[in-house]
Amino acid sequence: MTQTNDELVRPGVSGGLADIVRARFLLKLLVRKELKVRYRGSVLGLMWSYIKPGVQFLVFYVALGVFMGLEQSPTNKSGLPNYAIYLFSGIVLINFFTEALGNASRSIVGNGGLIKKIYLPRQLFPVASVWVSAVHFFPQLLILLAACFFSGWHPSLLQLAAAAIGFIIVTLLATGLGLLFGAANVYFRDSENFVDMLLMVATWASPVMYSWTMVHNKLGESWFTLYQLNPITVAVETFHYAFWLPTTDESAGIPPNLLSIWVPVALIVSAGVLIWGQLTFRRLEGRFAQEL
């Protein structure tokens, strides 16, 4: 009689984010499904990825750049040079974060019918939402790059690397929070409203539409340090450093110690949020089917 030492494994036990790698084909199918469902019956389809941020940019540019005087002009030397590039580079990144987190936090409840029928790694749903948001992010990035080249963009390799790291920071943070709130939303539907408020605050709590110097001058050094602990703030500043600053004479500068201190801190915080979100998700996912 042949003996085996294989341990019994309880069915349905999650392997965490490692399951995403093993089930990458399912991830691809989910991303395709999300894109098809979102644009089913739509005339413009993926063109909405260009139209919505374009309208958002125009509204903020006219309201803040023209009426509030944030655009530098011959009669307004205190404004920001190339404010259009400054504004759009921040909008592109914050839109990715808000879409990724908003959709990821609703992904488990939204796919409740599928979850109740079959078992598959539940982490696939929040991660697929982040991937769909990335699909919408890159067309906007192409528009930003075109505008930068038109404005005389001359980035260094360090600046391009900073932009890539900024995108990684936001991706880690959105995935971690998406896992956290996606699991919590199964048990407490108020989580959706909390996420909506969080996303509303995130747009204004980062230097998307205003300069970091305005925050520093108003709050002082101590509060500004707390402000810099927000990973979204650091990520937006890396995008300004990569896309906006090379279109100017670079006299405006970047926050002190952005690359040497704040970028590593933001990466650590975002990775910590990802671990927290994953641990919470694994703890709660066992009763998803029953709660849904």
TrEMBL record:
The residues covered by the ABC-2 type transporter transmembrane domain are 27-243
Q: Which UniProt keywords apply?
A: Cell membrane, Membrane, Transmembrane, Transmembrane helix, Transport
Q: Which residues cross the membrane?
A: 43-63, 83-104, 124-152, 158-182, 194-213, 259-277
Q: Where in the cell is it found?
A: Cell inner membrane
Picking any one GO biological process from the record gives: lipopolysaccharide transport
One GO CC term, this protein: plasma membrane
**Major subcellular location class:** membrane
Q: Which GO terms describe its molecular function?
A: ABC-type transporter activity
Signal sequence segment = none
> Is Transmembrane helix set as a keyword in this record?
yes
Q: In its keyword annotation, does this UniProt entry include Membrane?
A: yes
Q: How does it sit in the membrane?
A: Multi-pass membrane protein
Entries under PANTHER family matching the protein = INNER MEMBRANE TRANSPORT PERMEASE (PTHR30413), TRANSPORT PERMEASE PROTEIN (PTHR30413:SF8)
What family name appears in the similarity comment?
Belongs to the ABC-2 integral membrane protein family.
> What is the name attached to this protein's record?
Sugar ABC transporter permease
